[in-house]
């Protein structure tokens, strides 16, 4: 199926495949032949070979993005605070941790720990008047 093969083309080259590509290209194989052998796109093979000839290494570059503001210890502390008191707010957690982080960071750490937000009720969801009106509605039907 062409769809299944195309999906593999978008996954990252692992260390072994990079080594194979460099070895085959060093042996004089064409880019097209190497791509067919390792079941990757010609562009991926070409990029791997260009990196090897330009930098002399086949190791993947580190990912982009912002650096983490919290350590693993601080991450555990955030999760621990929520487990001890489920009604604690994000601003309280941020003050206790002592690191300048945005509330979304705290939410992300809690989501990584499979913890959902738990908001305390500000008022009871149904007043006695609401209950009475619901009961009347149900009895009428």
List the helices and strands and how they pair.
Elements: H1 2-9, H2 15-26, H3 31-38, H4 42-55, H5 72-84, H6 90-97, H7 103-112, H8 128-140
Helix pairs in contact: 2-3, 2-4, 3-4
Task: Give a structural overview.
There is one protein chain. The N and C termini lie far apart (57 Å). This protein has eight helices and no strands. With 141 residues, it is mostly helical. Helix 2 (15-26) packs across helix 4. The radius of gyration is 28 Å and the shape is elongated. The model has no long low-confidence stretch (mean pLDDT 83).
> How many strands?
0
What is the ordering of alpha helices and beta strands? HHHHHHHH
Q: Give the fraction of residues assigned to helices.
A: 55-70%
Looking at the structure, what is the overall shape?
Answer: elongated
Q: What's the N-to-C terminus distance? A: 57 Å
Mean pLDDT over the residues = 83
Report the β-strand fraction as a percent range: under 5%
GO molecular function, one term: DNA binding
GO biological process, one term: DNA integration
Organism: Trichonephila clavipes (Golden silk orbweaver)
Domain Transposase Tc1-like: 75-140
Q: Which key terms come to mind for this protein?
A:
about 140 residues; 8 helices; elongated; mainly alpha
In short:
The chain has 141 residues and is an all-alpha fold.
């Amino acid at each position: 199926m062409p769809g299944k093969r195309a999906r593999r083309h978008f996954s990252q080259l692992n260390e072994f495949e990079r080594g194979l590509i460099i070895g085959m290209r060093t042996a004089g194989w064409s880019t097209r032949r190497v791509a067919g052998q390792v079941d990757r796109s010609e562009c991926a093979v070409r990029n791997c070979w260009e990196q090897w000839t330009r930098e002399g290494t086949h190791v993947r570059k580190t990912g982009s993005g912002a650096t983490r503001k919290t350590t693993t210890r601080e991450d555990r502390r955030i999760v621990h605070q929520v487990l001890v008191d489920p009604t604690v707010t994000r601003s309280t957690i941020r003050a206790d941790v002592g690191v300048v982080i945005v509330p979304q960071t705290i939410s992300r750490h809690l989501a990584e720990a499979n913890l959902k937000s738990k908001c305390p009720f500000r008022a009871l969801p149904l007043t006695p008047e609401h209950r009475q009106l619901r009961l009347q509605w149900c009895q009428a039907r």
